[in-house]
Amino acid sequence: MRNVLITLCAVSLAGCINVYGPVKTGMQDAPSDMPSAGMSAGAQAAKIGNRKPDELFNAVTQHYREKGLNSTVEDSGTGIIAAAGDDPELSAQYLDCSMLSQTQNIQEHYRIVTQVWSAGEGSNIAVSVTGVAGLTAPDGNDKVKPVECKSTGVFERDLLERLKK
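User: That's the sequence. What structure does it adopt?
Assistant: Structure tokens below.
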């Protein structure tokens, strides 16, 4: 009797279970137009055919130092170099925050991420420069609502020119 009840409950509940969404089978690649995790939508990969990833990683690290960027992440295993900060000179050089109507006392924070990886023969490199600008009062309240800033393209252009030499 007990087995019959368990079987009846299982059969009656089986029609209530639904799975929504597409069925995934095996390994699936992300669409190629999607940015890497942590990268902005504007980050595009460039292929440098005559350099190894280790060589490019060292050159990128040196480029960060020469530009006055203190990298907070340097992981040669994954090929990621990243820097973040709020230096007004660097922010003004690398970020375009023109969508803000107020320009006095604006605080800009930049984030630069570079990734280098093998492309079989040669290497790929992706650079993302993003930031946020706003004005926060000493009491912690936003005087100017934070806005996402776009890259001016200066850092990316300088880095790629250096690496292609």
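Residues 16-40 have pLDDT under 50 and may be disordered.
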